[in-house]
Structures are given as structure tokens and as C-alpha cells.
Design goal:
- The complex is a heterodimer of chains A (about 90) and B (about 270).
- Chain A is an alpha+beta fold and about 90 residues long.
- Chain A is built from three helices and five strands.
- The radius of gyration of chain A is 12 Å and the shape is globular.
- Chain B has one domain: Rossmann fold.
- Chain B is an alpha/beta fold and about 270 residues long.
- In chain B, strand 3, helix 2 and strand 4 form a beta-alpha-beta unit.
- Chain B is globular, with a radius of gyration of 19 Å.
- In chain B, helix 1 crosses helix 7 and helix 4 packs across helix 5.
- In chain B, the strands form three sheets. An eight-stranded mixed β-sheet of chain B has the order 4-3-5-6-10-9-12-11, with helices on both faces.
- Classes of the chains: A alpha+beta (about 90), B alpha/beta (about 270).
- At the A-B interface, helix 1, helix 2 and helix 3 of A face helix 1 and helix 8 of B.
Amino acid sequence: MNRIKRLSINSSLEAAKPMNRLWIDERYCKGCLICVDVCPTKALKASQEINAKGYILPIGNDMKRCKACGLCELMCPDFAIAIEEDEG
Amino acid sequence: MLKYLKEEGPLGPRLPLIFCPGCGSGQVLNYTLYAVDRIIEEDNVRKENFLFISGIGCSGRITSHYMNFDSAWTIHGRALAIATGALLANPAFKIIVFTGDGDNASIGGNHFIHACRRNIDVTILCLNNGLYGMTGGQHAPTTPLGMITTTTPYENREAAFDLCKLAEIAGATYVARWTTAHPRQVIKSIMKGVRKRGTAFIEILSQCPVHEKASPVAILKRFKRDTIPIRRAEGPAEGKTLIGEFCDLDRKEWNESYQEIIDQFLAGSG
């Protein structure tokens, strides 16, 4: 939880409650898209846009499917993903 | 896991990591921090008791640049020699050594087998990507048969080192092999290795998307497809790499055996 507060630039994939939240740090992500592949429920997908650094970042596909298993956070090589489990 | 990383250095921000997109080194760093985090919590070990040592190569960049622990970035292949010295100075250290396959198997091959023979209390994480990544993708002693690298453009025809067998025969007490596509198993193995009194050797097959000219996702899928756990394999698995824990035994640790001599003399003089 400490980490999430510290991120200054991030894209929150937040929607209506109750839902798990995923934070992708755009400063650190290099667009390898391992997270999109390992997600067992396909809650993530590759974005259509290329960012200023030339990387294709992951974005939320359907965050209602996210079970907060943490596999994307665990397998991210660049420490760019954090999951916040919904407490409600 | 960012609490264990140096986000800011004297010359500005250190993150994002220097590694190429999708590199296995970042993943292994992530897994190691998960394992270390759990050991700190469960075993009540202080953060100061950990020491991270690395050699040269892509894997050498992991420790002192990013980890907010005691760490040393040492000379090529000699990470284990420096780990031996550090262990002599302070036997309470929990030492984790990051090496690459070139660093560990070719340049530091002798240090590696003798560290295993002496059974010094270190955990060796060998990131095996089958080539020399930092210098331009040349052929290494661990390159699998048939792989194309920049110095073997017509396929590699030399047999590869089986580092796990080498470590087992040389006398390591814990030997395991996993890939970067097996995160939970890697974390479990690292925790076991750190808790083990003696040499723990964990080979982690890692991906180099730049020199293998494939996407990291494709290489991770290949790791899943081309490996078979040792408990499920009957006999030599044709064309598949064995993964799993190869040995887990107890043998007297190097420092302990010397401590016995010291204790003998202390008892004699007193």
C-alpha cells in the first residue's frame, strides 16, 4: 500500500466499486506485455497507442474479471505494476 | 517490492531498470525480492544480514545499482571468491550471488566448482540465457545445441554444460533448476537455498529477447513447453529440459568445519 501512494504518474484502471484496482507505472513500464499474456482471466490487453518512449503499454480490458491473483505484479520485469485488492 | 530498491541515486533516478524490455534479469530480481521479503518476515532476519554479490555481465547490474541492501559488484567470474572472503569475515551473512551463465560457467568455472566442493554457505542464482548478452550475443558454454548466435550463425554444434549436474557432482547441497516462467517455484527455491547451511545452486533459465530475436512472451511460452518437472519425467525426456530440485542433502558447511578446529585449540589452551 505504501508503494501506491508514492507513484506520481500512473494510469489507474479504476471503475465502479467493488473492483480490484491495478496501477501501471508509465515511467517504469517498457511494454514487454508479459502481464497481458500471464493474466489468467484476460483482464488486461495491449493498448492501441504508442507512448512517448515508443512502447505499447498494457491497459485494462475488463477489470471486473480481475481476481487480484498478483501474477502480473510478480512477473513484471520492471516493477511497473501494483495491485490494490478491493476491501469492500 | 519497491521498498527494497534504490529509486534515487546520487546522479538522479535509477529506475527504470537498465535491462532491455522483457529481460529475465528484472524478473529474477523481482522473485528474489519476494523471497527475501518473506525470509525477513518469517525468520526474523535483519535486512543488514543479507549480502548480494554479482560478477560482470547483464546479471552483474542487478545488485549494487538497484538493491537497497549491502551489495558488491565485483570482478568477472570472481563473485564466489569474494563471497568466500565475505563469509570468512562475517559467518552470519546470508549471501546471495547473482551470476550469469558466462560469468559462472566459463570465466568463473573454477571458482564455481571449488565453492561447491568446499560447501560454503552461499546461494548462487545463475541466470542462464544461453549466450553472452551484454557483449553482443556470442556463443557461450551453455548454448543449447542448434541455437543460432552471432558467433554460431550456422547453428551451434557444441554440447552445452549441464550446470546442475556439475554443481551436484562438485558437492553442492541444494541444486535446482527453474525458468523465469515458474515464479512461485523460483521463490520457494530461493527461500530454501537461503535457509540451507551450505552451497545452494539455483539455475534459472532466463530469456534474452534481443539476441534470441523473439518476443519475451514467445520465449516464456517455449520455456513452459520445452521443460518437464523431474518428478514427472521417466528416464531422459527426449528433447525436453528437466526442471525441479535435483538434490537436497546435508553436509558439513565450510565455516563450521574450521570452527571445530578453532574450538579444539581454544579448549586445549584454556
